[in-house]
Amino acid sequence: MAHLRLTNSLSSPLPNKLVTFSSQSLILHRPFFFAKPKPLIRFARRNGPPLVLAAVGQAEPNRLPQTNAPQVLPGEEEDLPSKSQEQGSQLRNRVVFGLGIGISVGGVVLAGGWVFATALAAAVFTGAREYFELVRSHGITEGMTPPPRYVSRVCSVICALMPLFVMYRGHIDVSVTSAAFVLATALLLQRGSPRFAQLSSAIFGLFYCGYLPSFWVKLRCGLAAPALNTRIGATWPILLGGQAHWTVGLVATLITISSVIAADTFAFLGGKAFGRTPLTSISPKKTWEGTIIGFCGCIITSVVLSKVFSWPISLLSAIALGVLIFFGSVFGDLTESMIKRDAGVKDSGTLIPGHGGVLDRADSYLFTGALAYNLIKTMLPLYGV
Fold first, then answer.
1. How many structural domains compose the chain?
2. More exposed terminus of the chain, fewer Cβ within 10 Å: N or C?
3. Is the domain of 283 the same as that of 313?
4. For 356, left (φ over 0), alpha (ψ -120 to 50), or beta?
């Protein structure tokens, strides 16, 4: 505390003029090397002893000039390394698990038969569970009534059985119709007041998660005609099936999957480099520039692989296949993005580290299998394939 010694007695008259005491006449608990410190207090006389009116200023050290550098809060220094480490860990998980999924899917596709159908059934069951969890999320249930849990579980089991049924029976139309009838009956006879939203979401779940993926079994295992001109098939080991193992279905499946991967990859890289114009409000990160680059990459991949596998023979057929695959992958991705947007979630699940759920990885493939199969069955034979 500053101590003052006044030479004038308190009873002596002071002029009515305001008297200012500078810090030079004060004994401060501060260093004396500051240039021209501001006055500390002012005294005034009002018919009596001087009174302290107000604190005017305080001696302060010279401050450094402020810079435009962002200020980092005390707790943020530790958060910056942790955030970078977390991003690096997510990227590492994405790459590692992506390679693992790619190798596993490639082996399953090459194996074909019951291995392919069983693996697809497992993926369909997991994807169906994720779909019905999205339907029951808070963002969707605000505007509708979700189906009961037992109905969701039954739908998931039916969806998982569809690929196996196609594998051993060859068709699925009658079974899907029967499953939809049983499902509608169960919903209409439930306790309480049945809702149309329950029926529509459950029926769409059968179509989206069960019926559409079943076309991959038709594509891989149903097109059993041998691809005789395939060079890889000519050197394929006898123990792994020999040349007869390379059927039109295997070649078509490899071209379709590779074209979808190319479309997603080129669209992502093109959007990062040149993306300026948003494609749709459903998925704000997608741009027209990235979509066009992905379209070109998908067609180029389809044409190049058709030359590698010597199927399809016609260039026009390869281009048509690439175009159809691209539109199927884009609309499959946007459909799942619309569901997640209404649900208010970023990923459909957390099963695959760095990738999200099964639907997040398989959304681009849901429509492409059906479109590719129908194109091959209806159009490609006209070109001598």
1. 2
2. N
3. yes
4. left
Q: What is the pLDDT of residues 104-144, one digit of tens each?
A: 999 999 999 999 999 999 999 999 999 999 998 877 877 77
**How far from the centroid of its chain's Cα atoms is residue 365's Cα?**
16
CA distance 192 to 151: 15
Task: Say if CB 276 and CB 290 are below 8 A apart.
Answer: no
The pLDDT confidence band at residue 178, using thresholds 50, 70 and 90, is confident
> Is residue 278 reached through a cis peptide bond, with omega within 30 degrees of 0 on the bond before it?
no
Q: In what order do the strands lie in the sheet with 19-20?
A: 19-20, 41-45, 50-55
252 with 239: CB under 8 angstroms?
no
Looking at residue 224, its pLDDT comes to 85
Between the alpha carbon of residue 324 and those of residues 181, 214, 263, 321, the distances in Å are: 32, 18, 12, 5
Distance linking the first and last C-alpha atoms of the chain:
100
CA distance 338 to 164: 29
- Residues 215-262 pLDDT 10s: 999 999 988 888 877 888 888 888 888 888 899 999 999 999 999 999
Sign for the CA dihedral angle at 78, 81, 85, 87 comes to: positive
Q: What are phi and psi of 133, to 5 degrees?
A: -70, -35
CB atoms within 10 A of CB 251: 24
Q: Domain residues for 242?
A: 226-384
Q: What is the pTM of this model?
A: 0.74
Where does a domain end: 222, 243, 267?
222
